[in-house]
Amino acid sequence: EADIYQTPRYLVIGTGKKITLECSQTMGHDKMYWYQQDPGMELHLIHYSYGVNSTEKGDLSSESTVSRIRTEHFPLTLESARPSHTSQYLCASQGLGLYEQYFGPGTRLTVT
Amino acid sequence: GIQVEQSPPDLILQEGANSTLRCNFSDSVNNLQWFHQNPWGQLINLFYIPSGTKQNGRLSATTVATERYSLLYISSSQTTDSGVYFCAVVKAAGNKLTFGGGTRVLVKP
Asked: CB A48 to CB B102 under 8 A?
């Protein structure tokens, strides 16, 4: 199984602040993903990456941006947080040629 | 895109009871995963099962790919089984997971 880490686990922040949600994995997986989830609801893909310097937008439009400078690291940034960004953000990874995705513990973001 | 529907949406069980959760999908898939999301939001991998049957302790799953459905069985349920169970699929020749709406399970002592 993959070891995936997300920080912070919980974040309460005011409107207009810039935030970065961190995601890292130690398994050398090429594929990484960010999902957004409202409490108890289905997950929606917002960004994904199939390798270093490769990023794509997912199915759900998001004002966030991502970068993939190192294989193990896939941070997500919101330049100006708004209350509509309040949600849980889950990071996942998947090895090349493998089918299972493994998820981090998530970051629960509240924008006041 | 592919549609994934889970039923029932909510399930209340008495501890020790058995239950079956269903996942229907609208197209051929090359990946199907079952997850359990605990009350802290963590998604735990239960099964990778694009076809066939697997068992892990009190949990088992069966996917009938030709009929486009999968079933998750919980036997002798425990309070720690509470949470949301998600089915997620990757469409054949695709590469992105699509999630169902989940089944919210509450196991009462």
From this structure: no
Quick check: A105 and B104 CB within 8 A?
no
pLDDT at site A96: 78
| Per-residue 3-state assignment (H helix, E strand, C coil) for chain A | CCCEEEECCEEEECCCCCEEEEEEECCCCCEEEEEEECCCCCEEEEEEEEECCEEEECCCCCCCEECCCECCECCEEECCCCHHHCEEEEEEEECCCCCCCEECCCEEEEEC
Q: How confident is the model at residue A95 (pLDDT cuts 50, 70, 90)?
A: confident
Name every chain B residue with its beta carbon within 8 A of the beta carbon of A42: 86, 99-102
Task: Report pLDDT for A1.
Answer: 54
CB contact under 8 A, A99 and B43: no
pLDDT digits (tens, 9 = 90+) for B23-56: 999 999 989 999 999 988 889 999 999 999 999 9
* Residues in chain B within 8 Å Cβ distance of A43: 86, 88, 97, 99
